[in-house]
Write a structure and sequence with these properties.
Helices cover 8% and strands 36% of the residues. The strands form two sheets. Strands 1, 2, 3, 4 and 9 form a five-stranded antiparallel sheet that branches. A four-stranded antiparallel sheet has the order 5-8-7-6, with no helix packed on it. The longest helix has 7 residues.
Length: 162
């Protein structure tokens, strides 16, 4: 079976930066509904269109094609006393970019630095601003169910041994 609209595709993948440094080893396969459902980056979806199990592709993506440009306005410095005592770099918190405007979407901020009296929070994706190379191999393709197509996403994972 070929990758086509309304198929569920399983990819084994890895992601590197342009220098070849590994940024995501793809520990778990990526499983998505193919066909413009925004379940995967459009350039990757375009590259695997028509591929069969066992075929591989490599896609180079600029920041705008992947996780976007780094946005310095999504970095906030907050007083240390606003956070729990056991705060650690890497912890995540939800918040708004502008506390006065609660109509905005909720952002997820990562703690990137802790000083004596301040905490640096960053709502950018960790890979924002990076050009990336996505290498993947199609390991399974199956027809999507009517329910998956109606909802626009997969509902269950499946074994590659099916």
């Amino acid at each position: 079976m070929q990758v086509a609209r309304n198929t569920v595709v399983t990819l084994d993948y890895s992601v590197t930066d342009l220098a070849g440094e590994l940024v995501d080893a793809g520990q778990e396969p990526l499983i998505y509904l193919h066909g413009g459902y925004d379940d995967i980056f459009p350039l990757i979806e375009e590259a695997v269109q028509g591929k069969r199990i066992g075929e591989s592709v490599t896609v180079s993506m600029q920041p705008d094609d992947a996780f976007g440009e780094y946005d310095a306005t999504l970095v906030q410095v907050e007083p240390r006393d606003k956070f729990p005592r056991d705060l650690q770099v890497g912890m995540q918190f939800e918040g708004f970019a502008d506390e006065e405007d609660d109509d905005e979407d909720v952002l997820v901020y990562r703690v990137t630095e802790i000083a004596d009296d301040t905490v640096i929070l960053d709502a950018n994706h960790p890979l924002a601003g990076m050009a990336l190379v996505f290498t993947c191999t199609v390991t399974n393709v199956r027809p999507a169910t009517a329910e998956e197509i109606r909802h626009g996403h997969i509902h269950e994972e499946f074994d590659d041994d099916d």
